[in-house]
């Protein structure tokens, strides 16, 4: 992966680097930047303990917007099929699952979830026919839930990753027949 130098511009209201370290771990911010840079996510906003970090990808580059000392609300649209876990955290993105040779790989690092919430029925089972755009699984990265949808229609042969397992970017998680 190419390294990209990203200047961090802080508004006068934010304060010093110490403020950033106190409210949000800089390593977490670096991981968020890497996540946006290596995924199909074009914008990501994360709030923690009164600090908000917004990262926007523009022209294949990742541009972090300065964190603010006050969290701003983000509008969330609820749908009838939304689950309790989905309501707890707004999804950062809805990614299409890349399917090469019938194998679907994780579009980012994180925890692999087959169901929308603990105890709920999985989005799909081995042997199920799925259609293009259907939800397949969720990748949870730093309490941000990314719903992954089928890029094509077909029958699921098997799940390679186990529910709740840590997965890496590009790791095979399910296979189509």
Automatic annotation (TrEMBL):
Keyword Kinase set for record: no
GO molecular function: acetyl-CoA carboxylase activity
Regions of compositional bias (Polar residues) in chain numbering: 61-71
GO cellular component labels: acetyl-CoA carboxylase complex
InterPro entries: AcCoA_biotinCC, Biotin_BS, Biotin_Carboxyl_Carrier/Decarb, Biotin_lipoyl, Single_hybrid_motif
UniProt xrefs under SUPFAM superfamilies: Single hybrid motif
Region (Disordered): 61-91
Highest taxon above the source species: Bacteria
Pathway per the UniProt entry: Lipid metabolism; fatty acid biosynthesis
An individual GO BP term: fatty acid biosynthetic process
Keywords: Biotin, Fatty acid biosynthesis, Fatty acid metabolism, Lipid biosynthesis, Lipid metabolism
Domain annotation Lipoyl-binding: ranges: 101-177
CDD domains in the cross-refs: biotinyl_domain
Stated role: This protein is a component of the acetyl coenzyme A carboxylase complex; first, biotin carboxylase catalyzes the carboxylation of the carrier protein and then the transcarboxylase transfers the carboxyl group to form malonyl-CoA.
Protein name as catalogued: Biotin carboxyl carrier protein of acetyl-CoA carboxylase
């Amino acid at each position: 992966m190419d390294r990209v130098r990203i200047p961090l511009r802080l508004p006068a209201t934010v304060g010093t680097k110490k403020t950033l370290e106190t409210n949000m771990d800089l390593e977490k911010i670096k991981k968020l930047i890497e996540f946006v840079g290596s995924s199909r996510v074009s914008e990501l906003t994360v709030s923690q303990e009164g600090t908000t970090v917004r990262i926007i990808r523009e022209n294949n580059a990742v541009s972090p917007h300065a964190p603010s000392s006050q969290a701003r609300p983000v509008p969330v649209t609820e749908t009838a099929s939304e689950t309790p876990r989905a309501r707890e955290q707004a999804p950062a993105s809805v990614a299409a699952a890349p399917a090469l040779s019938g194998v679907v790989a994780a579009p980012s690092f994180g925890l692999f979830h087959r169901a929308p919430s603990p105890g709920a029925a999985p989005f799909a089972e081995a042997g199920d026919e799925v259609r293009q755009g259907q939800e397949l699984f969720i990748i949870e990265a730093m309490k941000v839930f990314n719903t992954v949808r089928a890029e094509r229609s077909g029958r699921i042969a098997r799940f390679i990753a186990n529910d709740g397992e840590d997965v890496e970017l590009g790791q095979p998680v399910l296979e189509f027949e």
